[in-house]
P-type Cu(+) transporter
Amino acid sequence: MADFQLKTMAPQPSGKASGTDHYATTTVAVEGMTCGACSSAVEGAFKDFAGVKSCSVSLILNRAVIIHDSSLLSPDKVVDMIEDRGFDATLISTVEPRTNQPDLMAPATTTTTTTVSVEGMTCGACTSAVEKGFATMDGILSVDVSLMMNRAVVVHDAAKVSPQTIVDTIEDRGFDALLISSVESKSQAAATQYAISTIGIEGMTCVSCSSSVEGGLKDVKGIASYQVSVTMGRAVVTHNPDVITAQQIADIIDGFFDARVISSDVHSSLKKDTKSQHLSVKIYGLQDEGSVADVERLISDLEGVQSAVISFNTAKADIEYYPSTIGIRTIFEAIEAAGYNALLSDSEESNAQLESLAKTKEIQGWRTAFIFSLSFAIPVFLISMIIPMFIKPLDFGKIQLPIPGLFLGDIVCLALTIPVQFGIGKRFYKSAWKSLRHGSATMDALVVLGTTTAFVFSCISMLISIISPPHNRPATVFDTCTMLITFISLGRYLENSAKGQTSTALSKLMSLAPPMATIYVDPKQQLQAQQNLLLDDIKTEPGFDINAIQERKVPTELLQIDDVVVLRPGDKIPADGIVTYGESFVDESMVTGEAMPIQKKPGSRLVGGTVNGTGRLDFKVTRAGRDTQLAQIVKLVQEAQTSRAPIQRMADIVAGYFVPGVISLGAITFFGWIILSHILPNPPAIFMSNASGGSIMVCLKLCISVIVFACPCALGLATPTAVMVGTGVGAENGILVKGGEALETATKVTKVVLDKTGTLTIGKMAVARSSQSALWSSSDWRLKRWWMLVGLAESSSEHPIGHAIANHAKTQLGIAHETGIDGQISNFSAVVGRGIAATILLAKDTKAHTMHIGNAAFLRESGIALNEADEKAASEGVSATTKSEKAPSGETFVFVAIDDTYAGHLSLSDEIKPDARYAVLALKRMGIKVAMVTGDQRGTALAVAAQVGIDRSQVWAGVSPDEKQDLVSIMQDEGEIVAMVGDGINDSPALATADIGIAMASGTDVAMEAADVVLMKSDNLLDIPASLHLSKTIFRRIRMNLLWACGYNIVGMPFAMGFFLPLGLHLHPMAAGAAMAASSVSVVGSSLLLKYWQRPSWMTMQGIDEEEAEMAMSGDAKWWQVWKRWSRGRATYQPVETAEV
């Protein structure tokens, strides 16, 4: 039998070695224990187990404390062993022995994650070019380029490659790069480190661009993996910071496109409490190197600061600190107390502003380029085409100048074309040259080739006309040059504007946190002051400091753990925390997607980024800065939008050969028609027309049309734009999908495996029904007194079942759970594993009542006779050794005796979530099989399955965490694509093994880390089918985009190559340029339609009920209506009911 109270493992006195010095102390929350037999079962798991010193289990606190040798038994194994006993376990904490703590003074390994904003990327070829720039660079661990975000993330060794080198490398690739941040991270020497760096890349326009960048990163020593996103304009690289630095990675990319380091985050195998974090601070007011040394010493002497290095030239301080010991604001206050001003230089907000400005600058740049080129293109077009063909009397272009063969129209067109060709076109030349110099070709190379060919040909034609008699007016195509660049500039402007719309969801998320927060000057004394009712009383307390009620405003990024924040009506919540004072309703829709405001009171959890209602709240900060749930969501969405779906790999491969292939087709078209026009007896009429300028001019125009028309941009944008918009829509609806690969796999799911406790059920006991004896049910007055007596007696119980009964009694009486029942309790006693006894005197009563509440054995031992029918039902339970009797259906019976006479009983069960059966129904309607797995007994599992509509054959009970993982593997071997849904540490192995892991946000961090999809609304199981439906919708849009991009080239290319010239049909170079611009814009526009996604009506509880009612009225009952009728009516919550087992 376990101890009734939790045993405390007191430390040994100082100065004497403790017998537990080499042991770790692990605390585990254990759910499902109902009696002493349960706690004994948990203790029995560790009896005589090697490496376990002691085990203490508290039934009251639902906790187990195990002192063990962590080298022989890990904390995760402790959890697994408890799960094997049939209980749900959650790891609370593990305190390692001091001898196992890492030496914080040991030599540290420095890695840098550098984030660069890159402007000018327009396609996958651009991102590839940036990545390729780092191919041969030493010190780069990883590089990831995102076209949509215009960002490159490089993880590198700062000792080998500086952040500026990364920027230079990206700029060498033909893009403008701006350094956003470069974050160093030092961990202990024993730690295994890797860094993830983001590099912003500008200039990528298609998949060929990203292929160039990837080629630059391929086989680079120190780089483990890389992702290049054309749509987000960034590369994310995972690398060894000891081998290659983020700046080196950016330098590699810069050889192809303009790149800048956006961020560089170092990850370590050490636990968070032994891992330092990097802080970059701008310090203003430094006078000389002496003041630099003073500030360095000042910061380094602060407790929790590992190191501080300040550069006098940049006035930038790089600080390594331990967030568990010291906060950012403390460091800032120390700097400002010394007479200097400090500014956080690598905050997410400033990075977002820089990126936003960079995107706005690029959009405005293309708008200006379009307007400028259009102002020159229109006159050229009029002089070359419109006036000679339709307004011949005004054709001044045919006026011949004193120089034979030189005409006024040609001179004017040449003068108007040069500013467009070499002014606006300069950016195309720059990008094309850098990409070709590194052995790759992008869309810009095609633009340069097409327009330069037209320009050079026109100039040569003018020269020949001057040199060779009879000095006829030459055939020029200056209008082709100007109009092509005009159309391409328009296309880039529209494309970048549309791409900016794809990230609106992410921008909204990043703007949710307020810039400033109001905190109390002295949070500890303020918490004490809140316990007093009147301000006058507070002032008279000895030692009270008036500063306790003083407030101050601080930037949100400077909030620290344990700060107490003041929230007034309408305030945005700046960090995660727990309410300490006040009541209000909070709008969490922007983070979780929950439509209705949630009531918050002392003890309730708050999420940063949500909005307070009309009440005032004070809350204590538990997570701030980059550790908040909002920051993690933003990071997850950014990573998802940067990642590449498997379907995109084929598009990337095609894009890698696209530009050389197009150039080859252009050459074949030119020389092919040159030959055909001379050998065919009746060539197409266009070759015979004088207006066409001769056969060479016709062939040249066809060649230019082929080169300009074929655009790899649409192919490269098809997937990432859809992924970006889709994941943003999912985040707005509380569905976080971790990347394109998870999206694609989710569309193939054939079977969903649901964990029971905490997923299908609430995980807490609730009263399912009650029965009173004839005496106590004879009138409403007696029934009310029955609930008052039972509720008051159980209100003193610490048992989970006692809490459930007390709360249910208060609900029946119409009072709040926090409110007590009027009356007095005396002679209270709790018999472990049996029940409780007490004497109750209700308010305004003169007679006290003796209460006995417990199992059948407890009442019999007290000399109380039970109702035969009820005792028979209980005798069919598992045992008579618990406080209650547990029936095979999962229900727990509790018997009540008042004044030594049987008065009734209650049955309790785990509470099933209201939408559990609707979620199962929706999954089945999607054609997906549904199974349930649990560590609980089979009778309970079958009862739950019967209530939610899961087939008996798809129920697995009594399954340990390892067996859950094995079960998923067996299903996969049978050909199923498995999605596992869970919320606990015990589910994490199965979540990781499944093809798709879906975790509830209310679960553990371990489970959410192992999952591919995270559902922010833990109480809405209909988000499970909604997440799969959204994934399918996104993937259909991707396939539609790819089909359009490929079909556009397949259908249009024959026209451009002149296949239909015999019919008089061909594609003019200007029309080819317009079509090329339209293709990219149409693909991005198609992806933007995903913003209007909504879950179908049959995926909501109301919609299912309405559809069932309509079809029942029409008599057209489907299988799922039949199932619905069989599964009983809908209730506020659904308890586990008796099922035939």
